[in-house]
Amino acid sequence: MPAPQRLLMVCLGNICRSPMAEGALRARLHAAGLGMAVEVDSAGVGRWHVGNPPDPRAITCAARHGVDIAGLRARQLRPADHDAFDLLLCADASVLQAVRAAAPAGARARSALLLPWGGFAARTEIPDPYTGGMADFEHVWTLVDAAAAAIVARTAAHAQR
Ligand code: 4NP
């Protein structure tokens, strides 16, 4: 089996979008028997919520879809992440810009927007649900879960080669 691919989901606060993306991807990888093929983590470019669990609405939304993200704790993106991961997958364009601005010279990780990288064509950015309601969190779940499904399909195809 090839070396595990290391993917870091990145958003602003690491309490809404990126922990939901981490949870969705982990769950789909596990269900496909590919838990060992991809290492998944998440981080935020901001530090307001470091050490906190995901937003209660994110926890509730993930739980409705059978995924437990209550044990995750927010952390801030650190310089070493740019070498420890293969890909930093960002929730929106401003996060991607902040990630690229923070990349140390010569860092090996690539960075991209999660939805286009996952093959999701209908939109490129995951809207920030923080000031919204449960419907906004459900919309985020739909987006991150679609990207997760595409990443798993791609990983499965790669693993069979
Ligand atoms: P996230 O959402 O980036 O999806 O985790 C946010 C969480 C907190 C804040 C902004 C966005 N905040 O400003 O505290």
From TrEMBL:
Active-site residues, record numbering mapped to chain: 11 (nucleophile), 17, 128 (proton donor)
Enzyme Commission no: 3.1.3.48
Record keywords, A-Z: Hydrolase, Protein phosphatase
Location of the Phosphotyrosine protein phosphatase I domain: 5-154
Enzyme class: hydrolase
GO molecular-function term, one example from the UniProt record: protein tyrosine phosphatase activity
UniProt-listed Pfam families: LMWPc
UniProt superkingdom: Bacteria
Annotated InterPro entries: LMW_PTPase (IPR050438), Ptyr_pPase (IPR023485), Ptyr_pPase_sf (IPR036196), Tyr_phospatase_low_mol_wt (IPR017867)
Similarity comment text for this entry: Belongs to the low molecular weight phosphotyrosine protein phosphatase family.
Protein name: protein-tyrosine-phosphatase
Native species: Cognatiluteimonas weifangensis
